[in-house]
Amino acid sequence: MKREDIVAIIKKERVIAIVRTKEQLKIPKLIKDLVDGGIKVIEITSNSPGVLEEIAIARKLYSGTDIIIGAGSVVNVKIANAAIKAGAQFLVTPNTNTDVIAVAHNHSIPVVMGALTPSEICLAAEHGADIIKLFPAGDIGISYFRSIQAPLDSITFFGVGGINLLNIEEWIAAGISGVGLGSALTNEEKNKSGENHRENTIRKFINIIKKSQWNN
Fold first, then answer.
1. C-alpha closest to that of 34 among 210, 181, 194, 202
2. pLDDT for residue 174 is more than 70
3. Does 54 score more than 70 pLDDT?
4. C-alpha–C-alpha distance, residues 27 and 110, integer Å
5. What's the N-to-C CA distance of the chain in angstroms?
6. DSSP string of the chain?
7. Could you tell me the pLDDT band of residue 52, with boundaries at 50, 70 and 90?
8. What is the pLDDT of residues 93-135, one digit of tens each?
9. Is the model more confident about 208 or about 123?
10. What would you measure as the largest C-alpha separation in the chain, in angstroms?
11. pLDDT of residue 210
12. Is 126 exposed, middle or buried (0-12, 13-18, 19+ CB in 10 A)?
């Protein structure tokens, strides 16, 4: 799949699910729950144990499907190269490291690059970042995003960090192009009655997104 095709899928789906855990054995189940709930774009963070192995396993398991598997927390070129070798279809960074873009694009891999200030955002965009990950979105707030977006409205922004069921509709209304969701999607596998709380939460997000102005 070409870089442009992967970018198109990410922009269409508008949600990147973030799998971050301290227990490698939990990763396959987390991914399965996300896929079963309707999520198609998933990143496994580089600080999760066994990340390279799990990327390779997930790529093989979901080969031939429309599920896209990427690597997150890619802070430098070393991690980028390892993730690409393992089969990552896209990279997500928390920081603005333009060397990562060069490495990824040489392999036709898109980058969702973390940036916060106008200077970081413009630097990432000028070096070809496919999507800007506004991070940490929840801490800076919607008013900051609106101020940034006004002069930089040609840039595709995904908000990441602090976005949840209580505020996602506000972010959508403010004009964010997509979101990255971590613990808001993956926390608490079951509630006291034995229901799969994670799957219910994922469905709630999907329902909100389907009814949002993104689909109007």
1. 202
2. yes
3. yes
4. 23
5. 28
6. --HHHHHHHHHHH-EEEEE--S-GGGHHHHHHHHHHHT--EEEEETTSTTHHHHHHHHHHHTTTSS-EEEEE---SHHHHHHHHHHT-S-EE-SS--HHHHHHHHHTT--EEEEE-SHHHHHHHHHTT-SEEEETTHHHH-HHHHHHHHTTTTTS-EEEESS--TTTHHHHHHHT--EEEESHHHHS-SB-TTS-BHHHHHHHHHHHHHHHSGGG-
7. very high
8. 999 999 999 999 999 999 999 999 999 999 999 999 999 999 9
9. 123
10. 51
11. 82
12. exposed
* DSSP sequence for 77-99: HHHHHHHHHHT-S-EE-SS--HH
Asked if residues 145 and 135 have their Cβ atoms less than 8 Å apart, the reply is no
Length of the chain measured in residues: 216
Cα separation, 212 vs 133, in Å, equals 21
Question: CA-to-CA distance for 142 and 192, rounded, in angstroms?
Answer: 34
**Residue whose tokens read 């999520």:** 39
136 CB neighbour count, 10 Å cutoff: 15
Domains of the chain from N-terminus onward: 3-211 (3.20.20.70)
Beta carbons within 10 angstroms of residue 101's beta carbon = 23
**What angle in degrees, to the nearest 10, is found between the helix axes of 197-211 and 27-37?**
40
Region at 16 (left for phi over 0; alpha for psi -120 to 50; beta for the rest): beta
Task: Please say if the pLDDT value at position 46 is more than 70.
Answer: yes
Output the average pLDDT for the chain. 94
